[in-house]
Amino acid sequence: MLLSQTSGDGAGRAALIVIDMLNTYEHEDADVLVRSVREALPGIGALLGRARDAGAPVVYVNDNFGLWRSHHGEILEAALAGRYRDLVEPVAPDEESLFVVKARHSVFYETPLAYLLGQLGVRRVVLCGQVTEQCVLYSALDAHIRHLDVVVALDAVAHIDAGLAEAALRMMERNMAAELLRSGEITFDGVPPG
Fold first, then answer.
1. Number of domains comprising the chain
2. 194 lies in some domain
3. Would you write out the chain's pLDDT as a tens digit for each of its 194 residues?
4. Residue 111 maps to a domain
């Protein structure tokens, strides 16, 4: 169960969903995104540690870079071989992490994630990663329409456009009933923040 300082009853098991953090940063917005990712890394690292310590599911959902033969090993290798290895290594999956490959913005779109979460008994998803105004937003919407409780870790998401990211966060909170919390306010199965 997910507990937070400001959450409701915390019913249901929580999973940490790490969105698109295995990234080669070889796109036109990379320079702007990299600055925001650096700011988000400590929060993502804290959530990963807390979720792993609690035995909560940690699911990496990542773009396949358009390479349909990709699997998580290839995606991780490509990201580590890129010019921003230092942004990938601290948040790389461990051997217990689960992995889902996606091709579009939402972590749910034509992926087995909903089925996987159902099998794990997950009712709440904690979203972190990139990009707030794109993949995080669409993933939060798809989680909401699947009747999952959504938590977005404010200091563990990265953006390209700060204004759009702020608007996206407001939409997630208002239209999708998402809880917007800092990583230090989020715990998994009673493992305290910090």
1. 1
2. no
3. 233 333 333 457 999 999 999 999 988 899 999 999 999 999 999 999 999 999 999 999 999 877 776 678 889 999 999 999 999 999 999 999 999 999 899 999 999 999 999 999 999 999 999 999 999 999 999 999 999 999 999 999 999 999 999 999 999 999 999 999 999 999 897 555 65
4. yes
* Amino acid at the residue 140: A
Spatial CB neighbours of 132, under 8 Å, sequence gap ≥ 6: 157, 158, 159, 164, 165, 168, 169
Q: Assess if residue 73 is contained within a domain.
A: yes
Domain span at residue 76 reads 2-188
Q: Rounded to whole angstroms, how far apart are CA atoms 110 and 98?
A: 17
Q: Where are the alpha helices (DSSP H) in 93-153?
A: 113-120, 137-145
Here the CATH number for the domain that contains residue 148 is 3.40.50.850
Q: Which helix H or strand E contains 164, and what residues bound it?
A: helix 162-175
pTM of the prediction? 0.91
